[in-house]
Amino acid sequence: MEIVTASAPGKIILFGEHSVVHRMPAIAIAVNKQTTVTIDQNESLTENEIFFNATDYHRSYKISTENLQHDSLTPINQFFLPFCVIIREILSKNNFTIPYGARITISSNIPKGAGMGSSASVSVALAKAFTEFLGSSVSNDEISSLAYRGEQIIHGTPSGIDNSVCTFGGGILFENGNITKIPIPDISIIVGDTGKPRQTKKLVEKVGFLNKKWDFYKEIITAIGSLVRESIPLLENGDGVGLGELCSINHGLLEALGVSSPELNHLVEAAQAAGAWGAKLTGGGGGGCMIALTSDNRVKDVKNAIINAGGHPYQMKFAQKGVSIQKSEKEN
Ligand code: PMV
After folding, report:
1. Which residue CA neighbors atom 5 of ligand 1 most closely?
2. Which of 162, 193, 215, 296 is catalytic?
3. What atom of ligand 1 comes closest to residue 160's alpha carbon?
4. pLDDT tens digits for range 130-170
5. pTM for this model (two decimals)
6. Is 162 a catalytic residue?
């Protein structure tokens, strides 16, 4: 019996979160934290049964593929709903039948719900693992759009940047659904987690509301788009000082959009005061994580400053690898 394991990275948004939802360009880069989804045929399950075990989330859930055929998915457990939507989409091409029970084990070392792409990473790894488990290899474009279906359940109107970068890895310039690969700078990145929970969906709604209410607000969104374009040659040249400066400006513009928080501002200011080239919130904001770009000799100071300001620092590396698959035989 075969065991299929797919992995997908987490990500940071370097520039352009929120404005990307309003058709501006944004830059996201995969990081060396990842989700792993393993699927095996399990003897304790009957045919057409799927058992999810999300170990790091301390949740599990069993569902029959028959329940996925109904138009309404309301009775499905909210946490597993995005994953069930992805499975349903894949099974719709398979008559909703699997000839054995499938156990799906999800584990991840990406900070959860903190703007690091944890949900997109699970969706991408799940789409890859489940299609391979059914014996159909599909393109990465298809994996990314399957994952987008899950992201819609969680975020409402996602731009698609998270599922794209978690699928393709490396650095991407994302604009109106188009993806251009960009070089990854060889610089140190420190992620600071405020530990404050927040929901990207609510912050995206807030930006949408203010964008309709105030005419000038659109100019802030457009300014972020211009900043993203100006960052591209700096990425190509690995100009950490310039990129750091743009990070701090982007943070100011995100604060003006109303998506920062006192906790995020505190960590950003602490990192800047400790000598980082620049710092900003990353992802939806309102809590969750910030990033600081820094020279190697300031890494320790920036990490300590984040701790002293009440945050949890992670030193991360940018990662080239996107979604990947491994198959092995189960020992009987
Ligand atoms: O908080 P995250 O990791 O889901 O990042 C969201 C990025 C946004 O631009 C705020 C939303 C989007 O769909 O692009």
Report:
1. 283
2. 162
3. 13
4. 999 999 889 999 999 999 999 999 888 899 999 999 999 99
5. 0.94
6. yes
